[in-house]
Amino acid sequence: MEELRVAADKGDPQAQSTLGVCYQTGQGVTLDYETAVRWFRKAADQNDSVAQCYLGFCYLSGQGVPQEFGQAAKWFREAAEQGDAASQFNLGVLYETGQGVPQNYAEAIKWYLAAAEQGEPQAQFNLGVFYETGQVVPQNFEEAVKWYERAAEQEIGPAQCNLGLCYQSGRGVEQDMQKAIHWFLRAAKQGDKTAQHNLGIYYASVGAQPPEPVEGEEPATTGPE
Known about the structure:
- The protein is an all-alpha fold.
- The protein folds into two domains: about 1-115, Tetratricopeptide repeat domain (Serine Threonine Protein Phosphatase 5, Tetratricopeptide repeat); about 120-225, Tetratricopeptide repeat domain (Serine Threonine Protein Phosphatase 5, Tetratricopeptide repeat, Alpha Horseshoe), CATH 1.25.40.10.
- Helices cover about 65% and strands about 0% of the residues.
- It has twelve helices and no strands.
- The chain has helices spanning about 1-10, 15-25, 35-45, 50-60, 70-80, 85-95, 105-115, 120-135, 140-150, 155-170, 175-190, 195-205.
- Helix 5 crosses helix 6 (about 85-95), helix 7 (about 105-115) crosses helix 8 (about 120-135) and helix 10 packs antiparallel against helix 11.
- It is elongated.
- The two termini are about 40 Å apart.
């Protein structure tokens, strides 16, 4: 910690950003959001994208600074334009909700796509929703399934549930109830209420018998946890 502080005092942006995280989380130092912001700002002013993202989050949540969505958008954009996936996702959310920037779904999708292509799972899920609903982009169930699958494999519960619904209805994939149940189970174990509801309906319809296991999955012996 002492070496980190020395490097931060000498102006090393990575050390400053890391020290900011320590103060934000209370790791090795007393929790202090205002001091965290001070170190994030020093690194952000040196164009450190990680610090810019953290600083944007501080303004977004009002952590250590007054909540100010415009400032959050500013710092997320600085980092997003450098390719920071988390900032690209967060900027997309601000454009989708109209917080700190004019509401613009096309801009939201642009940033979600940039983040999704780097593997950001929440962006992948949001992109899947846009393609499934046909909002702004042409409705494309196959494209929705593609993004749901990528997010689902990273354990995003709502993506797993939506993927299950696609298999249940045959939207974008060949209808397959066993695969639907597979994804409902994975989502339900994370507490997804829609998946739990769908499983309950399924079990009731088949006399409370668990489904045949999908290849590679352990046989189910009970309902969702």
